Amino acid sequence: MNASAVQSSEVTGSTALTSRQRFQKASRCEAVDHPPLWLMRQAGRALPEYRKLKETYTFVQLVQNPELAVEVTLQPIRRFGFDAAILFSDILVIPEAMGQTYHFRETGGVVMDFAVQSKADIEKLSVAQVSERLSYVDKALRMLRAELGDKTALIGFSGSPWTLATFMMEGASVPKYGRALALLREDPKTYFALAEKLTLAITEYLKMQIAAGIDALQIFDSHGGHLFAGEFEEASGRWMRDIVSHLRRELKQATPPIIVFSLGTHGNW
Fold first, then answer.
1. How many whole angstroms separate alpha carbon 19 and alpha carbon 36?
2. Structural domain span for residue 182
3. Structural domains counted in the chain
4. Phi and psi (nearest 5°) for 144?
């Protein structure tokens, strides 16, 4: 037996790791036979089977129909055998569940049905029924957990409060989010009121995902890089930390590993 085989058997024991076991161990910083493999956008338009579905269904229909969301989530697993499946969904399901609907332009990009620009706009948003309105996500995750079993890991996710707030304050996807940044800098109390509400909504959403059987959560702070280093903590970092603290305080050891993807913010941590 060569050295690498000996090392592999020492790591895994006599039984080979399943993809789910490999992912779980790696996410706890434990030794594995090799790093688990998954891609952040493994499901979706890169796959011909997804493009075939898009000939019949809109993106939002694929997200909101549990059976279709399961099918799209599983497509890259069937094709490539990745170690983890990532729920096919969208970060904007949370604003929609709070009362701010979104849709996709024919030319590309997202439009919200109104822009959050004042405390009155924030008062229109409700956290009370987020879990109920996102029950289609809960159903999809439970179906996926049953389908994947103990073979493949399952990752759930959410946008960060700051990243969701940028869409909500702009009322659309735009290149630089100037309106959102201006509101943050000129009227921080209004932004903080929105961030606090989003933190509560995201926490409830992630608790629902944990109960449905996910193996890890990812928080997407995709717009963190639009912030100056000196404002990152107040605008984004503290709210993500609050979410993690809420989960750990309530769920304790049942809290799964949490991955933070914060684009362009490597100097802010």
1. 7
2. 83-262
3. 1
4. -65, -45
